[in-house]
Amino acid sequence: MLLRPATSPAFSLLAAGDTTSIRLFPATYRNSTGIVVVKAAAKSSSSANSKPLTGVIFEPFEEVKKELSMVPNVPQISLARQKYADECESAINEQINVEYNVSYVYHAMFAYFDRDNVALKGLAKFFKESSEEEREHAEKLMEYQNKRGGKVKLQSILMPLSEFDHAEKGDALYAMELALSLEKLTNEKLLNLHHVAEKNKDVQLQEFVEGEFLSEQVEAIKKISEYVAQLRRVGKGHGVWHFDQMLLHEGAAA
Fold this sequence. Notes:
GO biological process, one term: intracellular iron ion homeostasis
Organism: Saponaria officinalis (Common soapwort)
Enzyme class: oxidoreductase
Low-confidence stretches: 1-25, 40-44
GO molecular function: ferric iron binding; ferrous iron binding; ferroxidase activity
Strand content: 5-15%
Strand order of the largest sheet: 1-2-3-4
Keywords: Chloroplast, Iron, Iron storage, Metal-binding, Oxidoreductase, Plastid, Transit peptide
């Protein structure tokens, strides 16, 4: 049965330099399967454009049938998951483990510099904040995993070092060089995660990694590189104490 067309046009097209307008009026009817079909027919003020427009068909219910059939009924399966590859899910879980391992090492550094016989409070503060930041990154990845319909699978965390003194470099420089290596390793792992997303054509995951992690990682590498350069200049003596005081009051000054 043909339904009466709507009185308002769907859209109008005005040719450049011409006053002739083409208005498309939608016509709706039900096909043999009972599905509502919308077609557009042309109505023109010029005989040159009096031919009906063909090929404009909008069948929303036909198009959604496939997605509707894929909605899971099993409670253990995510309802939100869409175009999220298993490889991307595994890569996210691996990155969560990287962030937690780096956080664990930074926490060990905090504990070392907070000892009464080391007493470098600025370095202790810096590494404690670094540990918290890496843990926040892990939690952000966990939230994203759940958002995409994946499953978070936490892996084992390795026991870190508990002593950071070095005969030639001293503890401050050695720990900061280790921190620089950890930040570069984390950045390498993030780039690998981005590559996995790109390989699986997961544009949203690529955007997430770029927007939430990569810029921040580059800035962290630059900052810690400067700290390493400064500690190499001051040596192992009194200069380390001044550097430590700078870190201790850095937040307050800002």
